[in-house]
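testing teh design pipeline on a random one, pls ignore if ur not involved
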């Protein structure tokens, strides 16, 4: 459950990076807000367009329940080396000082892009990919899982 101060409702344009958007009705979809080149971008998390993304700063057409300041947790048992396997759509990749999700850009002609979720993390020399991850709010006994990757996502061979 969420406390009233942990949420609002509105268009994607009003959601800041590291917000989770939850659907309020049948035709809305869960999404995660990150950035591409410093501008807000939404990554759709399920449905026909799962892990497709689009720029969201001016998007007043897509709407939902906005949960700001969520955290991303990765499942260390799903780790793989993205330099030796395809970092498919929906995969989290930790590289240098960034954690990003791989998504297909709307109008991207099949190309995938990285949508940054965290910047300024301690630097690391190698990349690590994760197929299993979840979106949470709160910490310790107050932690609640709001969304998690489907178990069908597997590490690349």
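output:
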């Amino acid at each position: 459950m969420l406390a009233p101060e942990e949420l609002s409702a509105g268009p994607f344009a009003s959601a800041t990076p590291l917000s989770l958007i939850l659907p309020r009705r049948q035709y809305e979809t869960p999404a995660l807000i990150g950035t591409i080149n410093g501008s807000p971008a939404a990554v759709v998390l399920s449905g026909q367009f799962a892990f497709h993304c689009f720029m969201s700063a001016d998007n007043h057409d897509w709407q939902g329940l906005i949960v700001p300041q969520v955290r991303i947790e990765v499942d260390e048992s799903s780790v793989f080396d993205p330099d030796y396997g395809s970092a498919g759509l929906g995969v989290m990749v930790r590289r240098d000082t960034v954690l990003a999700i791989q998504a297909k850009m709307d109008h991207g002609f099949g190309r995938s892009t990285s949508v940054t979720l965290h910047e300024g993390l301690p630097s690391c020399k190698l990349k690590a990919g994760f197929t299993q991850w979840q979106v949470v709010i709160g910490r310790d006994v107050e932690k609640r899982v709001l969304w998690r990757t489907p178990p069908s996502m597997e590490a690349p061979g």
